[in-house]
Amino acid sequence: MAAVNAIEVRDLAFAYADGTPALRGVSFAVAEGECVGIIGPNGAGKSTLLLHLNGVLPETPDGSGAVRVFGAPITKANLYEIRRTVGLLFQDPDDQLLCPTVGEDVAFGPRQLGLGGPELGARVTAALARVGLAGFEARSPHHLSRGEKRRVCLAGLLACESRVLVLDEPTSELDPRGRRGIEALLASIPATMLVATHDLEIVVELCSRVVVLDHGQIVAAGETVALLSDEALMLAHGLERPHVLRHRHPHE
Q1: Where are the domains of the chain?
Q2: Confidence class of residue 22 from pLDDT cuts 50, 70 and 90?
Q3: Which of 5, 24, 94, 166 lies deepest, with the highest CB count within 10 Å?
Q4: Using one digit for the tens of pLDDT, what is the confidence trace for 117-149?
């Protein structure tokens, strides 16, 4: 029996309330254990696509089957299980931080999944340590830097032990040391990952495949180094060949 894809998107279309198209017939699949980059210029539809992968959009999942997670369509009936499986890191961390302390924020997701007691506390402690924020449990998330807020949000996903991580600009607003730390952390996580980002250096380091979006459509998809080395393609869609590839042969 053929393996079921972790994520499968078939002819996904979406328009905003004013009728503006955001996604136009998007189709792709991600196998379990893969890390796939989603890249494109501002306004390409990257964040809108990610919000469909655990049912944030559309607001009332209709079970059309345009998005499937391990073979299951996103419907109201299975939305709890979908969100247990797919952890979403929002582009703006302030959209994800809900509680008065960092510890409560990181505990929020696993608590919703039924975890409690010493096991919940251990999950929170371990997740914060993994993102470099050990001892931050009592801090107010709203007094942290943007980069620290992003790491708190990532700790919340790690505490849920999601099988799929969907990450919107995970290295945005991090200093070089913080960026390197997040890159190493993501490389160590044995989960399926989709990473939407303008940080093409991290795409080269982490992602085996890339999907390029522009104006809500997939304009290219393929092996990371070969695709990102295509300077004409990159420039045509508001991107640049990443520096790490400028002196590297596409087949290395």
Answers
A1: 7-97+164-245
A2: very high
A3: 166
A4: 999 999 999 999 999 899 999 999 989 988 899
Helix (H, G, I), strand (E, B), or coil: what is residue 187?
Answer: helix
Q: Which CATH number fits domain 7-97+164-245: 3.30.200.20, 3.40.140.10, 3.40.50.300, 1.10.1760.20?
A: 3.40.50.300
SS3 content of the chain, % helix, strand, coil (to 5): 35, 25, 40
Q: Which two tokens stand for residue 137?
A: 């449990």
Task: Give the amino acid at 226.
Answer: A
Listed in sequence order, the residues at least 6 apart from 59 whose beta carbon sits closer than 8 Å to its beta carbon are: none
Q: In what order do the strands lie in the sheet with 67-69?
A: 21-30, 7-15, 67-69, 72-73
Q: Tell me, yes or no, if the pTM score tops 0.85.
A: yes
Q: Produce one character per residue of 218-250: b if its CB has 16 or more CB atoms within 10 Å, e if not.
A: bebeeebbebbbbeebbeebebebbeebeeeee
Three-class SS state of 115 = coil
- pLDDT band (50, 70, 90) for residue 59: confident
Residue of 190 and 103 predicted with greater confidence: 103
Helix ranges, the chain (H): 46-52, 79-85, 102-112, 117-130, 146-160, 176-188, 200-206, 224-228, 231-236
